[in-house]
Amino acid sequence: MKTLQGKYIGLRALEPEDLEFLYQIENDESIWELSNTQTPYSKFLLEQYLENAHKDIFEAKQLRLVITSLEHKTFGLVDIFDFDPKNKRAGIGILISNPEDRDKGYGSEALSLVIKYCFKHLFLHQLYANIDEHNVKSLKLFETQGFKKIGLKEDWNFNGISFSNEYILQLITN
Q1: What residue ranges do the domains of the chain occupy?
Q2: Whether the model pTM is above 0.70
């Protein structure tokens, strides 16, 4: 089996055709809190981003992969960020964009695939994730894949009304 191909989903690089999908996600205010976004993105800026998405992770220090079904339906995104090849670590974020596609195992399979990719092809020693304490489903998803809570950042995120805590989770390979 290919590293980025699972039983039900696959991960692939961004394509120019993903512009509308990215535009919808980046401008969906309901998920801005998850990505610490505060302003909308124009199609022009996203086109520029897509033009540079071909850059190697070693140069860009990040990689965004699209989660698709085997029939090429787009489900969401996986981000590898803060890529640090010297210290062999990176951060991981995942989003299943449509609420109707959540809780069907796509996120779990995508996370499993990206973990294997990071350890096998990027030769990383550890991955980490930052997850709001109230995002119980994401905490469970990452813990199911072997991530451990290693710390709590108190009053870390402000949603315009109140502060919330954020866990940092870590997965270290043997």
Answers
A1: 9-172
A2: yes
Task: Return the HEC string of the chain.
Answer: CCCCECCCEEEEECCHHHHHHHHHHHCCHHHHHHHCCCCCCCHHHHHHHHHHCCCCHHHHCCEEEEEEECCCCEEEEEEEEEEECCCCEEEEEEEECCHHHCCCCHHHHHHHHHHHHHHHCCCCCEEEEEEECCCHHHHHHHHHCCCEEEEEEEEEEECCCCEEEEEEEEEECC
Directed axis angle between helix 136-144 and helix 106-120, to 10°? 50
Band (pLDDT 50/70/90 cuts) for residue 35 is low
How far apart (Å, rounded) are the C-alpha atoms in residues 70 and 58?
28
**Percentage of residues in the chain with pLDDT exceeding 70?**
94
First to last CA, the chain: 22
Joined together, the tokens standing for residue 139 give 């905490």
* Residue corresponding to tokens 């991530």: 147
Mean pLDDT over 7-16 rounds to 91
**pLDDT-based confidence at residue 29 (cuts at 50, 70, 90):** confident
State yes or no: pLDDT of 34 exceeds 70: no
Instruction: For residues 97 and 138, give the distance between their C-alpha atoms in angstroms, rounded to a whole number.
Output: 13
Amino acid at 171: L
| Domain 9-172 grouped into CATH 3.40.630.30 | yes
